[in-house]
């Protein structure tokens, strides 16, 4: 593998491949969660490298692509193609094919729900193919500078110029695209400090970014401003924004969801936060809290993906 190039691009900047060198350089500190944490980033990348990209047609010319990191929404029409999130660079060929199958319209607009690599790694090539990139202002800051995600034990270099959003906003932004009303809204700190929702008004479709993971425990990025309380607040905002007919696109997990499933996610977060907060208040250490299995009632349903029960308990413990 081309390690030099890997060091210079976000896409290839993978501590798990070159950890020895960086340990010597002082970038990599030994920590107990490392094996698990490095597994997370590589697992998502490795999975994207071999995953087919599957298209689910929703309504009003809106589809969702599954199989390259976060779920990607696509709106197709006379103004071209609008994407919500851009997946991982290794999926470029498969995403290109899936987009071509949706129509011949050129790429026009890419909205980033937040800065994480499994949503924004595709920025560079999508921009090169013609997409203007819009995001919340903190997302641009994160993409433009070195980021360390402590709980992944992972450092990301600044993105190349073409991958940086050219238009940002603070709280809200709305636009018309091929006649559709598209609403972008900042959650406040939630999964990171740059998360936004994207609403397709007439179609009644909501893309939640990573404030909602369908049927799986979510990652929470404390290193860039996320917290369990922020995730719960975002879940409440999501619930307030939908009705029983809304199609909800989660950041991860089964890509076509609904209000009832979102409610279960929110209730799971609240129950586990309360369980973990109680243990912490009693003076239990983080490891003792994990050993007490405060997520036990939820593990069979939610604990089957990369964020396992112990990892999720530690993430919640950090924020209570
Ligand atoms: Zn994320």
Give structural notes.
The chain has 320 residues and is an alpha/beta fold. Helices cover 38% and strands 21% of the residues. It contains twelve helices and 16 strands. It has helices at 3-8, 15-25, 34-50, 92-102, 117-120, 123-128, 137-144, 228-241, 259-281, 286-291, 296-302, 309-317, and strands spanning 54-57, 62-66, 72-77, 80-84, 107-111, 132-136, 147-149, 154-156, 167-169, 172-177, 180-186, 196-200, 205-207, 213-214, 247-249, 252-253. The strands form four sheets. The protein has a seven-stranded mixed beta sheet. Strands 10-11-12-13-15 form a five-stranded mixed beta sheet, with no helix packed on it. A two-stranded antiparallel sheet has the order 7-8. Helix 8 (228-241) packs antiparallel against helix 9 (259-281). The chain is globular, with a radius of gyration of 19 Å. Mean pLDDT is 89; it is low at 1-36. The structure holds zinc ion. Zinc ion (ZN) binds next to loops. Zinc ion is lined by residues 114, 116, 191, 210.
Keywords:
320 residues; alpha/beta; five-stranded mixed sheet; 16 strands; 38% helix; globular; disordered N terminus; binds zinc ion
Short description:
It is built from 12 helices and 16 strands. By secondary structure, the chain is α/β, with parallel strands linked by helices. It starts with a helix and ends with a helix.
